[in-house]
Amino acid sequence: MEVEKTYEGHVVVLPYPSQGHINPLLQFAKRLASKGLKATIATTYYTLSSITSPLVNVEPISDGFDDGGFAQVRSEELFLESFKSNGSRTLNQLIKNHQTTNNPITCVVYDSFLPWALDVAKENGIIGGAFFTNSAAVTAIFSRIYDGELRLPVRSEDCPVVIPGVPPMNLEDLPSFLNAPESYPAYLRMKLNQFSNLDEADWIFSNTFQSLEYEVMKGMGEQWPAKLIGPMVPSAYLDGRIEGDKGYGASLWKPLDDGCIKWLDTKPPNSVVYISFGSMVSLTQQEMEEIAWGLQESGYYFLWVVKDSERHKLPKEFVDLTTQNQEKGMIVSWCNQLEILAHNSMGCFLTHCGWNSTLEGLSLGVPMVGVPKWADQLTDSKFITDVWRVGVRVKMDRGVAMVKREDVVLCLNEVMDEGERSLEIKKNARKWKELAKEAISEGGSSDKAIDEFMITLKDSCNVRDKTMC
C-alpha cells in the first residue's frame, strides 16, 4: 500500500491575479515544494485553468467575478473591494477545509497587494508572510510616502528626491503617478495599503537579492525587515536544482508555436534585438511607428512580441517588409521570453523595465535598452542604467512624452556595437548573471533566507501538532 507523503508544513501562496504577480509567487511556491513543503497556489476562478505545475497544488478562491475576472468589472475600485470581501471569505473556507486533513495549512504567503489575507491567516492562528513583487527600491519609495516622509504630489522643484540607499531621483526616475496621484487613485491606494498591517506579518519576502540591492536594504534598516529570496526565475536558467523547471507554469494567454527558436538558431551570437513590453503596457500608434522604423533603420536582426490587440498599430509598410524578409526580423504574438533571452544569438532586450522582465534580463545576462512607460518601470530603468549599468534608457521627447526613432537607433548602437560603453554594459551583464545564480544556488543568500523560513515553519508545525504535520 502506498504511504501518503508527509510534509514539514503546508503553505498557501496567494498572488494578485495578473501575470506579473502570479509568475514570481508561483515560482516561490515551487521553490518551497522542492525543499519539502506542501505548497498550494490559491488563485481566482478566472485564472485557475492557466496555472499548472507538478510540484504545486492549485485551488480556487473567489474575487466575486468568477467568469471574467477584472475584465468583467473594469473598475479597479470595485474589483479590489469585491476581491477583499469574497477573497477573505473563500480563503478562510480553504484553510478550514484543510484543518482536518493530514496536511493542515500552517502558513499563508500573500501578495503584498492583498493585505486582507494576513487578517485571514491571523484569524485562523497561522503564520502570515507578505510577498513584495517589485524592487526593494520601489518599496523604499512607497514606504516613505506611507510614513509621511515623502509628500505627494512630487514636483520638479522637489527633486532630486533623496532616500537612504537609493540614488538621487528626478521626476523621470520616480513611479509615474507620484507627481499626479489623482491619475491612478486606486493603484496608488493599493501600493500604500501594502504597509497597512505589515507590522503584524511574521515574514516579509522580496523578489530581489542581496548583492543587487544591498545599499537600498541598508538604507531601509529595520523599517522593512524583508528576507530577499529572489530572483524568482525558473530554476533551469539559474541553479538547475528543480528538475524540468523551464517555465513559470502560468500563462493567461494561449501560447503559439511561432518558430522563434528555429529562427534564432540561424542568427550569429549576440546579434538579435528582442523587443517586448510585457502584458500591461499599451503603446500609442505613433510610438509603435517610431520603434518600428527605429528598428528598421538600425539594421539589426529583431524579434518583436506584439499582442494581437496591438498589431494594427504597426505601420503596414513595416509589417510588409518584415513579412517579405523574415531573414531580418520576426513579429510574433507570443513567445517564451526566458527561452529567447537565454539563446546565444541574443544581443539586447528592448524592454518596458517591468520588474519581472528586469530580473529575467539580469539573470540571463542580457544587456537592456529601457523604454519605461509608467509606474515602477521608471525606477527600474534608473537602476538598469545608472546603478547596475547593464543598459541604457531611450530618451523621451519631452513635448509629447514619447520615444523617437533616432533615439531608438542611438541606444541600440550604444548597446550592440563594440564601443567602450557597450563593452562595459556587456561585462556588467555577465557579472549580474553570475551573482543572480550565486544568490539562489545552494548556500547563496536567497537560498539561506528560504531555508530560514522553512525552519520556522517546521518548528511551528511541530508546536501545533506533530501528528498532523
TrEMBL record:
Family classification: Belongs to the UDP-glycosyltransferase family.
Top-level EC class: transferase
GO molecular function per UniProt: quercetin 3-O-glucosyltransferase activity; quercetin 7-O-glucosyltransferase activity
Name of protein: Glycosyltransferase
Keywords: Glycosyltransferase, Transferase
EC number: 2.4.1.-
PROSITE patterns: UDPGT (PS00375)
Domain of life: Eukaryota
Matches recorded under Pfam families: Glyco_transf_N, UDPGT
Keyword Nucleus: no
Glycosyltransferase N-terminal domain: residues covered: 11-44
